[in-house]
Automatic annotation (TrEMBL):
Xref: InterPro entries: FAD-dep_OxRdtase, FAD/NAD-bd_sf, Rhodanese-like_dom, SoxB
One Pfam family in the UniProt entry: DAO
Annotated compartments: Cytoplasm
Record key words, sorted: Cytoplasm, FAD, Flavoprotein, FMN, Nucleotide-binding, Oxidoreductase
PANTHER family assigned to the protein according to its UniProt record, in alphabetical order: FAD-DEPENDENT OXIDOREDUCTASE DOMAIN-CONTAINING PROTEIN 1, SARCOSINE DEHYDROGENASE-RELATED
Name of this chain's protein: Sarcosine oxidase subunit beta
Enzyme nomenclature, EC number: 1.5.3.24
Protein origin, superkingdom: Bacteria
Enzyme class, UniProt record, top EC level: oxidoreductase
Family from the record: Belongs to the SoxB family.
Residues annotated as domain Rhodanese: 19-63
Length: 400
């Protein structure tokens, strides 16, 4: 039983489980939760080499939206957004989920065409979407500089009113608490170092805390997935990059929506506590260090000031980075691998926080039934050999 003062137990690993999940970030925890809740599979361990949510889960800028261009993406992210809408009640935990609206700004005619096309595509897919002209943008978010003399003038924006933010550490704690209550073992300080594979079937993982036998093994290790998969002889089309973010000192309420601009490359919201939360683009090189370079932050600040001159005297409080796993078409990989019993959920890159419940839902279903969930089917690893890519690079999904 969980001690009333703690949200979850801290068990030692048992010698064997039906399912071993590698990675205790949001996706690993959500997968464990839905395996138990939806499929009654509770003989499950989540193995985390550090501490729960010490990876990207508690480093992201928490933007949640579902206004992706392609049908396959809209379907899985909208499934996730619908789950978010009931998640605080379901997990009995205030996730600070706030549907305050997400603006994606357009700064040139190409952006305008892309934005309008995406609004139409979203509506056809039942995703709420609006196109705002510059005056409407100013009305919705008065502190944005919409002057025609700006270096990157605001020429309009897409708006998803159901988009917003949530508090990422609360999400991790809430999922962990529920998974634990179902009997899932959450094992921290336990690094997976290799796999035992017999006749092309995974039968166990080797860990820093010994061998653990497993009926099925599910990777949910974000930026470290390609390193792990290589231990099982699988070469993945993933590149790991640092992605930086920062927060300002605490301010009075000044920004009550989320503003994203791919062209100037900055993403801003104001957290419940009062700090401005800003994300940048990826650092261009590959790395596994959870830190990035200052020139990226400098460019991000210049972009933020271009859009919000009102922030010119605000001080930066803290910067950090996470390691994101970027796939060639900027879409995730969910499903089976060439090794029987070994499953993959990766490639969410700079935008997987919003997918946390949806990803956990379809991954758990895929693992439970040994075949892809219908929403996961288009995101199979095979698409990189068949060529059936879901290219979100040029569209809305570039970041966050
Ligand atoms: C700065 C930044 C801003 C972002 N902003 C947004 C945003 O606004 N909106 C959005 O939707 N997404 C955003 N993202 C992306 C999002 O955070 C990720 O896509 C998502 O968190 C990945 O899934 P996860 O939570 O399971 O990953 P993680 O939390 O990284 O979980 C993976 C876990 O696996 C563990 N692990 C790795 N190797 C091993 C091993 N060998 N053995 C055991 N455990 C291992 C790691 O320690 C880690 O805890 C952002 C990311 C960053 C870094």
């Amino acid at each position: 039983m969980t001690h009333p003062d703690f949200l979850w137990r801290n068990p030692d690993p048992r010698p064997a489980y039906d399912v071993v999940i590698v990675g205790g970030g949001g996706h690993g925890l959500a997968t464990a939760y839905y395996l138990a809740r939806n499929h009654g599979i509770t003989n499950v361990a989540v193995l985390e080499r550090g501490w729960l949510a010490g990876g990207n889960m508690a480093r992201n800028t928490t933007i949640i939206r579902s206004n992706y261009l392609w049908d396959e993406s809209a379907a899985i992210y909208e499934h996730s957004l619908k789950l978010w809408e009931g998640l605080s009640a379901e997990l009995d935990y205030d996730l600070r989920f706030s549907q305050r609206g997400v603006l994606n700004l357009a700064h040139n005619l190409g952006d305008v065409r892309e934005g309008r096309r995406r609004v139409n595509a979203n509506r056809l897919n039942g995703v709420d979407a609006e196109w705002l002209d510059p005056d409407e943008v100013k009305k919705f978010c008065p502190i944005i500089n919409t002057s025609g003399r700006a270096r990157y003038p605001v020429m309009g924006a897409t708006l998803q009113r159901r988009g917003g933010i949530a508090k990422h550490d609360h999400v991790a704690w809430a999922l962990a608490r529920k998974a634990d209550a179902y009997g899932v073992d959450l094992i921290q300080g336990c690094e997976v170092t290799g796999f035992e594979i017999l006749k092309n079937r995974v039968i166990a993982v080797q860990t820093s805390r010994g061998r653990i036998a497993a009926g099925k093994v599910a990777l949910a290790a974000a930026g470290h997935t390609s390193v792990l998969a290589a231990q099982a002889g699988i070469r993945l089309p993933l590149q790991s990059h640092p992605l930086q973010a920062l927060v300002s000192e605490l301010l009075e309420p000044v920004l009550d929506c989320v503003v994203m601009s791919n062209a100037v490359h900055v993403y801003v919201s104001q957290a419940h506590k009062g700090e401005l939360v800003m994300g940048a683009g990826i650092d261009a090189y590959n790395s596994y260090g959870q830190r990035g370079n200052v020139h990226v932050i400098e460019a991000q600040m210049a972009a933020a000031l271009e859009l919000f001159p009102i922030f010119s005297r605000v001080r930066v409080l803290r910067t950090w980075a996470g390691i994101v796993d970027v796939s060639p078409d900027a879409s995730p990989i969910i499903g089976r691998t060439p090794v029987d019993g070994l499953y993959i959920n990766a490639g969410w890159g700079t935008g997987g926080f919003k997918a946390t419940p949806g990803s956990g839902w379809v991954y758990a279903d895929t693992i439970a039934h040994g075949r892809p969930h219908p929403l996961a089917e288009p995101f199979a690893l095979e698409r990189f050999t068949t060529g059936a890519l879901i290219d979100e690079h040029g569209a809305a999904a570039v970041a966050h």
